Amino acid sequence: MPASNEDDLIARYFRPLATSAGSFELRDDAAILGEAPGDIVVTTDAIVEGVHFFPSDPPETIARKALRVNLSDLAAKGAAPAGFVLTLALPQPDASWLESFAGALGQDAALFQCPLLGGDTVSTPGPRMISITAFGRVKVGRMVRRLGAQAGDVVAVTGTIGDAVIGLDLLKGGPSRPALSANRAFSDQMVGRYRVPQPRIALASAIADCAHAAMDVSDGLAGDLAKLCSVSGVSARIDLAKVPLSEPARTVLAAGAITLEALVGGGDDYEVVCTVPATRWPALAAAGTAAGVAVTAIGEIVAGSSPPVFLDASGRPVTLTRTSYSHF
């Protein structure tokens, strides 16, 4: 049965996701985020059809991406998820699309213990747009900011870098496609990394305990690190050979289908880059091992106000013409 109006749409597809008592089963105009010790961290991100996902992308992956890009921000701040509100703008209420979207969103809300609290649904003459505001909790005064990096800190990054750039290139039919044509599993892995980020919530507590500064890598490792350094009033020296790459990424790089510059300057990684005092680095590395998330040291913070310096395998500076994705 197709959705008939906004109230029916909310009741059918999204009320089952509102598992928190403070959501009032989405029957009110506002919600309550239950009292708990600590600070509340708030973050918001929107994804737009044709910009962050393709019109043909499965609704399940769109839903997961919409929530997970926000959870990635919470992880980088050292915060545990507490709930989210959803704004959904649709050209028309497609029952099949909504059922798949809401089902996947509900699965992720349960997986990451981040229940739906409320939101809004609207019609639009433009492309689909999903905006989520997520709330997290962290101990008082312990949210990890971009500000705080100190000379001597280890620069570390979670996971692998550049996979989503390759996934996007594959979906566009770019040069990565022939480079991975012999390995369907590699291609699927890269497309999956573009469509469904892996927020590092499992490391949020360790990041809060160990890091001086952190942010999620959404627009490109090189550019996002530069933002962190600028706010902190420091610089960095990064060994490009130590930047963690997946086996599929190394395959595409070796084939000459993509450059290392594109991998470190592309968007949609949704990993965490952080700076950690040397004395705390072993603890963060151990937390990564325990959580099954690779955490790799790629350089160090140095005094100064110049942009980070990226070094090749011989220790020579590399000039990056593009360091990040920008909407404008």
Largest sheet: 7 strands, mixed
* CATH superfamily descriptor of the largest domain: PurM-like C-terminal domain
% residues in beta strands: 15-25%
CATH topology-level name of the largest domain: Phosphoribosyl-aminoimidazole Synthetase, Chain A, domain 2
- Estimated radius of gyration: 20 Å
What is the share of helical residues? 25-40%
Order of helices and strands: HEHEHEEEHHHHEHEHHEHEEE
Mean pLDDT: 94
Number of helices: 11
CATH class of the largest domain, named Alpha Beta
Commentary on this structure:
The structure is a single chain. The chain has 328 residues and is α+β, with helices and mostly antiparallel strands. It folds into two domains: 6-138, 2-Layer Sandwich (60s Ribosomal Protein L30, Chain: A); 154-318, PurM-like C-terminal domain (Phosphoribosyl-aminoimidazole Synthetase, Chain A, domain 2, Alpha-Beta Complex), CATH 3.90.650.10. It has eleven helices and eleven strands. The protein has helices at residues 6-14, 59-76, 95-111, 163-171, 176-179, 184-195, 204-210, 221-232, 247-254, 260-265, 281-291, and strands at 39-48, 80-90, 116-123, 129-138, 154-158, 213-217, 235-239, 271-276, 295-302, 309-311, 317-318. The strands form two sheets. A seven-stranded mixed β-sheet has the order 6-8-5-9-7-10-11, with helices on both faces. A four-stranded mixed β-sheet has the order 1-4-2-3. A hairpin with a 5-residue loop joins strand 10 (309-311) and strand 11 (317-318). Helix 2 runs parallel beside helix 3 (95-111). The longest helix has 18 residues, at 59-76. The model has no long low-confidence stretch (mean pLDDT 94).
